Amino acid sequence: MYGPLFASFKQYLDDAQAQRERVIRGGRDITQSSKKAIFALQHAPVGDSGADGYKSAQKHLDEALNAFNGLEKDLYGTNGWRYNHQMSGAVQEFIEALSFQHYLLYGQVIALSKVQETIPGHVVVTISDYILGLMDLTGELMRYAIGHISGGSDGPSKEALDICNTLRTIKSQLVDKVDGAQFSRALGAKEWDKKVSTFNACVEKVERALYSQQIRTIDQVRGKKRRRGS
């Protein structure tokens, strides 16, 4: 009597599990492609969209977008929210890569609306994903700034100074103003505190590196003047 009913329940659960596994695999592909894009961008010059680093990064971002599109049926309708937890990490990683590319090309922090325009509409992109993606971006900006910090005899490079100012703006206009309690509930207090601590450490590392570079430049200039005087 109940055989067909239980069989239908079993089929529903099997389909849901298969769907969940496809979403998880797709999320891993998106994360992997996004990480490759970030790696390529670390070697790209500021503003030169024709450079190999940007071409390689765009290729990997396109791969991530294809993976998003491949999940359209699985994330259609309310499933976008149903699997939001499984997709959130991949979305944040993609936002990190996309915002890194956007910053290096245009010198600006990407807007949430631009992120939502880029990621296919069947994928849920929350304000939390956007903020956490930008917080992760600071680590890449820190590495880029330190790798490009020398401006020769003029002191720290303009790229490094601009990045430092951008990090300070993200801190004052975004991180310091968000509801920490809300993110603590969503991520867990320990995880949120770790995110904030890492973010602040990135800002401080860039500031210290700029300060050290400026001191070295001043010492070099003084040394040259002494040698000329002697």
TrEMBL record:
GO cellular component, one term: cytoplasm
Molecular function GO labels: sequence-specific DNA binding
Keyword match Nuclease: no
Coiled-coil region(s): none
Subcellular location: Cytoplasm; Nucleus
Pfam family, one: Translin
Keyword Cytoplasm: yes
Entry-linked SUPFAM superfamilies: Translin
Signal sequence, renumbered to the chain: none
Keywords, ordered alphabetically: Cytoplasm, Nucleus
Predominant location category: cytoplasm
InterPro entries: Translin_C (IPR016069), Translin_fam (IPR002848), Translin_N (IPR016068), Translin_sf (IPR036081)
Family per similarity comment: Belongs to the translin family.
Protein name, as recorded: ARAD1B11066p
Organism of provenance: Blastobotrys adeninivorans
